[in-house]
Write a structure and sequence with these properties.
Elements (H helix, E strand, L loop, with lengths): L1 E6 L5 E6 L14 E3 L7 E6 L22 E8 L5 E6 L7 E8 L5 E9 L15 E6 L5 E7 L7 E8 H5 L2 E8 L2 E7 L12
Parallel strand pairs: 3-5
Antiparallel strand pairs: 1-2, 4-11, 5-10, 6-9, 6-11, 7-8, 7-10, 12-13
Length: about 200
């Protein structure tokens, strides 16, 4: 709110107020936040959805048949230079959101990307059970992905941290240590698949 108060030389006072709303630029599907295609991955951005609003162009959530995931929408655009599986996550956010991926023109018509909607991070995600979303989609080189970030409900407002990465980066095996116990080599780490093989000396 902006208020102007004026006082004349006789002591009379008058005032007027006006509400000024500054929208997040990414609120408009025609002006999304553009993630640079040549940015080093992982790439993160923090956006506020406090003044974001749903627009008539915004598609409905494909992973919730109810009316959830349609409020305070923000838009991101990412055009990968190489084809592959890309991960979009809101790990580290405290706002409950629905992530969905689309192709098409900036404001539609939209085509949903296969498996391109997530409200709750899956058990394999690093942010499982934290009210955040973790979306993995297959993307083609040179084809813009349009990522809609929508509040799960109208009260879910605040700062949303969105990170994009190649799926393999975050899921690659990590060896944190190795010890020898008798004739056994014990290797510790994370992201090992069942049946994983460790090669010694190449």
């Amino acid at each position: 709110p902006v208020t102007l108060t004026a006082t004349d030389n006789q002591g009379a006072v008058a005032s007027a107020s006006v509400m000024v709303t500054v929208n997040e630029p990414a609120d408009d599907c025609a002006a999304p936040y553009v993630i640079p295609s040549d940015a080093p991955l992982p790439y993160s951005v923090a956006l506020s959805n406090e003044t974001a609003s749903a627009q008539r162009f915004d598609p409905g959530s494909t992973c919730d048949s109810r009316s959830f995931g349609r409020s305070n929408t923000l838009w991101l655009e990412f055009t990968p230079q190489t084809a592959g599986r890309y991960e979009f996550s809101t790990c580290g956010s405290t706002v409950d959101v629905v992530l969905s991926a689309w192709t098409g023109n900036p404001c539609g018509p939209f085509t949903p990307v296969a498996n391109g909607c997530n409200h709750t991070a899956d058990p394999g995600s690093s942010c499982y059970q934290t009210r955040t979303s973790d979306l993995v989609v297959q993307a083609d080189a040179g084809v813009p992905l349009r990522i809609m970030v929508a509040s799960y409900s109208p009260v879910d407002i605040g700062i949303v941290n969105v990170t994009v990465d190649l799926f393999g980066h975050s899921k690659a095996p990590v060896i944190s240590g190795a010890t020898i116990v008798g004739k056994k080599l014990i290797v510790s780490g994370s992201n090992f698949d069942s049946g994983a093989v460790i090669e010694l000396n190449g």
